[in-house]
Structures are given as C-alpha cells and as structure tokens.
Amino acid sequence: MGILVAACIKYDDWLKDFSTWSIYLGLAMTVPWANRLRPTSKTDLVTQVQYTAINKSSAITELDIYAHGADTNVDFNADSIADILPKDDAQPLTPLAGVMDTDGYIVFNVCQLGKATGILAAVAQFTGVPVYANTGDFNSMLAIPNGMWIMTSPDGTFTQGTAPPAFPDPAGSTYLMSP
What we know:
12 strands; alpha/beta; 179 residues; globular
C-alpha cells in the first residue's frame, strides 16, 4: 500500500489564517505532522505529487483534491479543467499515472463535480486510476458531501453510489496546500 496525498488547491479566505497547519478535512482540521506544499496549477500539482512519491519512496494510493468548482469545471488556481474540452484540459495530469499505486484512486472534493462526466472520464483515462466525485455541494468544514458519489473507471464507465474506499493509515501521508 502506498501513501495518501491531499491537495488543497483553493480554500475559503478565513482558512488562510490557518495556513501554517495542514488541513485534511476528511480526517481532522489540523494535522501538525503533515508536509505542507502549495500547488498553484495542474502542472505544479503533478510536479509536487511526483516529488512526494519519489521523496517518500512510495506510490500514491489515494490522491484527495480539495478545490473550488462546479458541475462544469474544477479550478486549479492558475488554470482549470472545463467540461467543454475536458481531454485537452486534463492531459497535463497524465504524468500522475506514473506515481499512482496499482490500486490507487483520485477523490475530487469539489462541489457538484460528479455531474461533469466529461472531466471525470478524461482524468480517469489520463491517470489510469478510478476517479471519485460527488454530485452535491461539499461542506469543507465537515468534509461532508450532500449528493451521490460517482466512480469513473479509466475505461470510461461510471458507477453511481460508490463512495471512495476508506484510506486506512494517514501516517506518513502528505498534504498539499495552495496559498
């Protein structure tokens, strides 16, 4: 089993006061032992995830991405993936395939992104791992989505109502935060 990496691409302004802490909202508000990196774009996210995998000598089992978005796009600060041209926009994530565990997966914690089937299919295809997203809004304080989970396989098939697997051990994991 590899490691878990959580990337906080964007977060609400009031959380900036807590930027000295790593925030993995699915486990706890503060994780003082976690590494704090700051991705600012899709390319920067890929670079930092690759560096983390090499530095930890481990493949990535779970990549959690916390970002702003909607049913048509996901924002990566300097750029985005839009449902208009999802394959063009998602292609920069292709190098993630080289650092993902064979049982790895990506979880987008982005409001309504589960409705953006083009984005989910493109990311799953380029990274070679299943991608999970929720159709509802995401409460970042409680890490609770209020919609239905969608799992997209690399072959483009969709499964409704399939929540991401529970990652068993956050110890040694890395949390990426943007400024």
